[in-house]
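Please produce the structure of this protein holding S-adenosylmethionine.
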Amino acid sequence: MKAQRATDSTLANLCLDYRSEVIGRSRLLHADAFEWLSRIPENSLHAIVTDPPYGIKEYNLDQIEKRSNGNGGIWRIPPSFDGHNRAPLPRFTALNQKERSLIREFFTEWGKVAAHALRPGAHIFIASNSFLSQLVFDALVKGGLEFRGELIRLVRTLRGGDRPKNAEAEYPGVCSMPRGCYEPWGILRKPLLQGMKVSDCLREFQTGGLRRIDADSPFNDVILSGRTPQRERKIADHPSLKPQALLRQIVHAALPLGSGIIADPFMGSGSTIAACEAVGLTSIGAERFLAYYQQSLQAAPRLAALRLDDLTEQKTDNELQPSFFD
Ligand SMILES: C[S@@+](CC[C@H](N)C(=O)[O-])C[C@H]1O[C@@H](n2cnc3c(N)ncnc32)[C@H](O)[C@@H]1O
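Below is the modeled complex.
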């Protein structure tokens, strides 16, 4: 009880002067991730679980508008399939060298501010995709984080697998990229203090390791996952909504002792915050885009209240609706 009161007061202090709302034991901020992480005191957070913007530009205001107008930009409208309209996908394969350098700079800078805000030994779980993960994880290491491996979310996406563009009939037996059947999440850690072992770090900072599923089962780095179900999409209409079934398993693993503060600095509709609430953990999320921030205030409590009977369930209500990111 006393420990929870201390966590609540730390959490309130982490809101600084940003607009914020309390949702259960968590806080939602309308803030820029870089600015917020660099302003909070060093060693404040016990973990980060996040799904960042990837092409850098797909969440710029002009690109979000183009998406909602069905108007091109980075958001490609894929052809319908079996009579189903597919949601817009960002055109990552169209990124040129300059844009790839921008991604590298973005994640190196973000790695630095995240390392400032995290406690030594604190973990980051960061969603990625098979096309950009190598670039992103390398940039995060340049920013001062330690690469600890990847979590593979086994999920069948609608990305890739297409025949060569405008030569489909000529090369019917070729696909230009494999059909994506997994989503890599980077597992990184703020380095332990020199000479510290995991056990020392757990005692001093409550970080350093990952929480086991139960006494007999360690956390595994492959999670079977369905696409985000329609009932969650009805609650939060965000193009990159991640499923509760996946996020609840990740946030559980992120705090080795089951206590402390998890942050999602690119929270979108608040799905990570909802997952923390659902499993009884404390979290704080930041979103820069006002409409998504407002969406998170409505969506997070409703997503948190969903009962999931089987966290590894593969079924979704509609396999063809969700976008590349979900
Ligand atoms: C990939 S989405 C995350 C969506 C989330 N997975 C969900 O389930 O709703 C990334 C989010 O980061 C936000 N964003 C982009 N740049 C940001 C920044 N500098 N600071 C805070 N949020 C940012 C975007 O508006 C977008 O909502």
